Amino acid sequence: xxxxxxxxxxxxxxxxxxxxxxxxxxxxxxxxxxxxxxxxxxxxxxxxxxxxxxxxxxxxxxxxxxxxxxxxxxxxxxx
Length: 79
Fold this sequence. Notes:
Elements: H1 14-17, H2 37-45, H3 59-63, H4 68-74
């Protein structure tokens, strides 16, 4: 199972299953990506998954595919 930089299993991601993933068949990995702020941010911060970032969750997380409320829950931070 591949896990995208956002933390979603690529096989379950709506963009991937629709064939519209900006990372193509490789899925979303940390790299400069004009279509994915999450991937670009992870790349610039040197993390594999946004969950590994000390700033997680952040404002860029709000634009991602995972609910911001869920992100604050798993990070054990108040939203």
